Amino acid sequence: MATKIRPTNYFAMLDNETQTQTENAESIVITIDTSNFDTLSLLGLFATDIEITLTDNTSSQVVYTKTIETYRYKSNH
After folding, report:
1. Are the CB atoms for 61 and 55 separated by under 8 Å?
2. Is residue 4 part of a domain?
3. HSE of 18, CA atoms in CB hemisphere, 13 A
4. Does residue 23 sit within a domain?
5. What's the number of domains the chain is made of?
6. Which of 67, 65, 61, 16 is nearest to 43 (CA)?
7. At CB < 8 A and 24+ separation, what contacts does 21-25 make?
8. SS3 for 71?
């Protein structure tokens, strides 16, 4: 029988599965190079709030920031 290999906790949020999740009771911080992306999707998220900050790579200046309080949104599940 083959053994299923799972990603480490940090990389679970980046795999191709929606059933694996990264867990941390305090906060999760991730930096993504968005030069090839225009969309962000957070699937299977369970959090009280999300903070998104976009920073210009050349000047390191914050160009966009948004905090979303997720407790305001009711899940369909």
Report:
1. yes
2. no
3. 6
4. yes
5. 1
6. 16
7. 21/46
8. helix
Instruction: Domain of residue 27: give its range.
Output: 10-72
Partnered with residue 49 across adjacent β-strands are: 69
What's the pTM?
Answer: 0.66
Spatial distance between the Cα atoms of 34 and 64, rounded to a whole number of angstroms: 13
Instruction: For residue range 25-68, list pLDDT tens digits in order.
Output: 888 888 888 888 888 888 888 888 999 999 988 899 999 999 99
Per-residue CA distances from 48 to 67, 72, 73, 74 (Å):
11, 9, 10, 12
d(CA 58, CA 49): 28
Q: Domain for residue 1, yes or no?
A: no
- Contact criterion met (CB below 8 Å) for 70 and 50: yes
Look at residue 5 and tell me if it is in a domain. Answer: no
